Amino acid sequence: MTANPQYAHMAAPTPDELLEEYLPLVRYHADQLMRRTPDSIELDDLINAGVLGLLDGAQRFDHSREVQFKTFVSYRVRGAMIDYLRAFDWMPRGLRDHAKEMQAAFHELEQQYGRPADEIEIAKHLGITLDEYRQRLNQVRSMSVVHFDDLPITGNQDEDLSILETLSGDPMLMPEAQNSMLQFVGMLAEAISALPARENVLITLYYYEELTMKEIALILGLTESRVSQLHSQMVLRLRSLMNLD
Predict the structure, then answer these.
(1) What percent of the residues of the chain are helix, what percent strand, and what percent coil, each to the nearest 5?
(2) At residue 152, what are phi and psi to the nearest 5 degrees?
(3) Distance, CA of 222 to CA of 143 (rounded, Å)
(4) pLDDT at 102 over 50
């Protein structure tokens, strides 16, 4: 395999060069995650974790792979930040249980109705009021912080490959990894296509167009708080559709 032309004839960048070029990327991912974390988490701490992920990613990057360096380190930066968050285990057990109950409700009602359930149906299934359901969505918004290792893609009968392993693993695994990535992308695309229309629009605006919650609220004619609730619902629904615990 030929070397990635972007780096084929370049010396490895120094840490200072990496920080100069990619610190805005680190800050971007930190800002994205801060929107869905408790007030006790400091932005600077997330940035520091991301910088460590950047430096580690630069050391692990294989220039011979047909993968853009920016794409690879973005996974490493975000993964390092989420590892930092998970070390605190800051989601109380009760909220984790609520998130699992909601995911189970999405699955059961989808099977029952043959379509995505709306929030009134979900609240009724859970035996709570609509206001209580929306409050739970506010409380479990941090479930939208999904580690890439939470998204397995089947590799072979002995082990699963994660997205990071697909990007950075042994070149001998490439044929299997590429096939696994295609399977995963297909599964994700199918899950996204099964989302209700408004949640499908939300995932496009937030993750592809990279608009803020405030900007999306203006487009959809909703409050920013309501958009945040819909985002939490969308993530939980996707996790249910993809059988993520």
Answers:
(1) 70, 0, 30
(2) -70, 150
(3) 22
(4) yes
